């Protein structure tokens, strides 16, 4: 399956895309990044120059993320947000994604998200994966199977895996590709996927068990060829069990 995910591509995008919004006060605070964030707030021009100089100092190459005036975690220079830890299913909010498939309806009432990419100073930027889980699936068993057996452990559970093509800072309105996973461990690839209205919720800059990181937005899938249609809103809880950050190739 790793070869299949190579189809998704990791092409960098430019800095003209809309940055996603943050949905809580905790998303705007951090220990290590607060000084640079404050500097950014007081002067966009000084933020731009400090971003450029800091990028060079960290060894990051110039590109889609390192040369733009955005949050440095969104642009990858600091690595994964410090708040992206854990998988507290007790804090999992409800989502409302309805999907029709050749194998019956999928009711996506629970959605998890994680990050994927390469650990190369994150100069390629971080990308998000969504896991839209059918209402009949035991979500705890789903996570436990992934933790025990890796990616293949989650295959027998009826769910949609959606990988955004764009880096997280440019995810708004971007295309994605979905894999419909079936209980018999077969799958269907669906195109015509779009993510929109993306908002970061909860605490991303520091670990806060009372306010875990979430990613909210709207998902639509329109692929008559594959027989997969879906629409609705999601409020996805971060789950590090599904994170796939690989070494530099």
Give an overview of the whole structure.
Helix content is 15%, strand content 32%. The chain has 4 helices and 10 strands; from the N terminus they run αβααβββαββββββ. The chain has 249 residues and is α+β, with helices and mostly antiparallel strands. Strands 1, 2, 3, 4, 5, 6, 7, 8, 9 and 10 form a 10-stranded mixed sheet that branches. It has helices spanning 2-5, 34-42, 44-57, 139-149; strands spanning 21-22, 96-100, 106-118, 127-134, 159-164, 175-181, 187-201, 214-223, 228-238, 244-246. Strand 3 (106-118) and strand 4 (127-134) form a beta hairpin. The chain is globular and about 40 Å long. It starts with a helix and ends with a strand. Helix 2 (34-42) runs antiparallel to helix 3 (44-57).
Tags for this entry?
249 residues; alpha+beta; ten-stranded mixed beta sheet; 4 helices; disordered N terminus
Shape type: globular
Rounded mean pLDDT is 73
Structural class category: alpha+beta
Please count the beta strands (DSSP E, at least 2 residues each).
10
User: What is the number of helical segments per DSSP (H or I, 4+ residues)?
Assistant: 4
Cα-atom Rg, whole angstroms? 18 Å
- SSE series: HEHHEEEHEEEEEE
Largest sheet: 10 strands, mixed
Proportion of β residues? 25-35%
Low-confidence stretches: 1-21, 23-70
Helix content: 10-25%
Spatial separation of the terminal alpha carbons: 18 Å
């Amino acid at each position: 399956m790793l070869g299949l995910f190579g189809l998704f591509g990791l092409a960098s995008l430019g800095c003209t895309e809309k940055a996603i919004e943050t949905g809580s006060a905790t998303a705007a605070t951090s220990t290590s990044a607060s000084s640079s964030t404050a500097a950014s707030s007081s002067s966009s021009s000084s933020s731009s120059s400090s971003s450029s100089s800091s990028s060079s100092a960290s060894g990051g190459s110039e590109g889609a993320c390192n040369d733009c005036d955005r949050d440095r975690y969104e642009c990858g220079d600091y690595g994964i947000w410090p708040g992206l830890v854990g998988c507290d299913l007790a804090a999992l909010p409800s989502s409302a994604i309805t999907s029709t498939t050749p194998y019956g309806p999928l009711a996506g009432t629970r959605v998890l998200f994680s990050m994927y990419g390469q650990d190369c100073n994150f100069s390629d930027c971080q990308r998000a994966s969504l896991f839209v889980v059918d209402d009949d699936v035991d979500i705890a068993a789903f996570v436990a199977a992934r933790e025990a057996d890796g990616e293949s452990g989650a295959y027998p559970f009826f769910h949609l895996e959606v990988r955004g093509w764009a880096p997280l800072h440019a995810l708004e309105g971007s295309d994605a590709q979905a894999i419909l996973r079936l209980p018999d461990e077969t799958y269907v690839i669906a195109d015509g996927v779009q993510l929109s209205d993306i908002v970061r919720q909860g605490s991303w800059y520091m670990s806060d068990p009372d306010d875990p990181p979430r990613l909210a937005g709207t998902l639509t899938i329109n692929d008559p060829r594959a027989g997969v249609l879906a629409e609705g809103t999601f409020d996805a809880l971060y789950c590090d069990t599904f994170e796939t950050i690989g070494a530099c190739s």
